[in-house]
Amino acid sequence: MMYSEAAEGKKFGxxxxxxxxxxxxxxxxxxxxxxxxxxxxxxxKSPEEDVAFGVYVRTNISTLGYLAASVFVLFVVIYFYxxxxxxxxxxxxxxxxxxxxxxxxxxxxCYFFGVFFNVYARPxxxxxxxxxxxxRRRDAILMNVVFAMLMFSIDHFSNYDPGIDYATxxxxxxxxxxxxxxxxxxxxxxxxTRLRSFLTGFAICIPVLIMxxxxxxxxGGGIVWPLVYGVEGGMLSxxxxxxxxxxxxxxxxxxTDYRLRELTDHDAPLMRELRxxxxxxxxxxxxxxxxxxACAIALNEDTALARAAAYYHDVGKLRQPEYFTENQSGxxxxxxxxxxxxxxIIRSHAKDGYDLxxxxxxxxxxxxxxxxxxxxxxxxxxxxxxxxxxxGEVNIENFSxxxxxxxxxxxxxxxxxxxxxxxxxxxxERTPEKVExxxxxxxxxxxxxxxxxECDITMRDLTAIKxxxxxxxxxxxxxxIRYPKIKIKRxxxxxxxxx
Length: 499
Known about the structure:
The protein is mostly helical.
C-alpha cells in the first residue's frame, strides 16, 4: 500500500472543486498538445511527402475531433471517480497532477516503442505498475483501463501507422494492454523487493504472448519475432517502472514500501545522525520498531510503515539529546532546571521531530506520527515535581503534550509501544505477568485520558496489541542462566604434555 501526501484534515470545498476542475482542464489541453505532437511526428515519418501536418489536420478534422472528445470523456470519468470515491484526494492539487503525469508518461513511452518497434513491444503495464505503488490498487485498475482506452483512441483516430503486419494487433490492443496491466497489478501487489519487481516482467508478458500467438498464427505469419517483442514489452514495463518509481517518489513525495525500507536503513541520514548523537534513543527506536512491526502484523496494518514510523518517532530528541534519560550517563541536567523549563524541553521533542522530518523532505505521514505519538498525555514526572514545589496548585495542561492525539492505528501502536518499551526497562523483574500488568496499565491509562478517540482502533485491536507487546518484550528481555565465576588459566605453552 502507498501513502501519498494525502489531504489529512483538508476538506474538498468549493474552492478545491474549482481548482481541481481547472487543473483537469489544463491537463486536458496538455494531452491535446501531446496528441498533436504525435500526429506531427507521424507526418514526418509518412512516406507520402505531400501530406503535411496542416493538410492532415484540415482533411481529418472530424476524426481528430472525435479523438479530442474521447480524451475528454475519459478525463471526466477520472474526475467523477474521485468525486464519488475519494474527494479528499482531489483537495490536494499535487495528487491530481500525479494521476495525469502517470498517464502522460505511459502514453509517451508506449507511443515511441510502438513507432520504432511494434505494438507488442510496448511496455503497456508501466502505468498500472506505477499507479499500484504510487496510488492504490483500485486507482491502478482505473488508470489501467483509461490508459488502454487512450492508447486505443490515439492508434485509431490519429495518423499512427502500425504497418500492415501489425494492424490486427492494434485492433486488439485494448485487450492486450488491459490484461497486461491487470496481471501487473495483482502480481505486483505481492512484490516487496526491486529484484522481484524485475522478475514480475516475466509474468506481465504472458498475456501478450498468448494474444500474439493467436493473432499471428491466425494470419499465417511467423510468430517468433512477435513473441520476442512481447517478452521485451513485459520486461521493459518492469525496467521502466524501477527506473521511474524513485523519480515519482521524490517529485511527488510519495511513500512506497521501497522508500520506507530505504528510510529505515541505518545509514539513512537521520538514522545515522541519531546513532551518532543519541545512541540511547536510537536503540530505543529499534526496539519500538520491533514491537510496532509485530503489532502491525497482528492488526493486518502496513508493517513497513509501522517500522519506519517507529524509527523516526523520536528524532526530535536530536535537538537536545542530553536532556533525555536514555542518552544520559550519570549527570542529569534537569536537576538544575525548574519543572516548567524541563517539561518544555521534553514535550518539544514531538514538534521538533515533525519539523525535522518535514525539513528533510521526508514523508509527511512519518512527521504526523512523530507529533501524535504522545497525544495530549501529561508528563507525570515533572508534574509531580511541580506539585511538591507549589503545594499542589498546578495546572496539569501546562505539563501535558499539546497533541494532536493519534489519528490512525499506526500512530496508536507507536504510542503504546513507545511507552511499553520505556516502562519495561524500569521493571526489576521482567516476568510475563509483570510485563502484562505494566502494558495493561499503559493502555488503560490512555483510554481513560481519551487518547484513542480520534482513531478507529477497537477494543479487540487493543487486546491484540497488548498480547503482542507482552510476547515480544518477554522475548527481548528474557532471563539468562547465571554463569559460574570460574577463572580459566591458559595452559603454559612450554609445559610438557603427559603421555
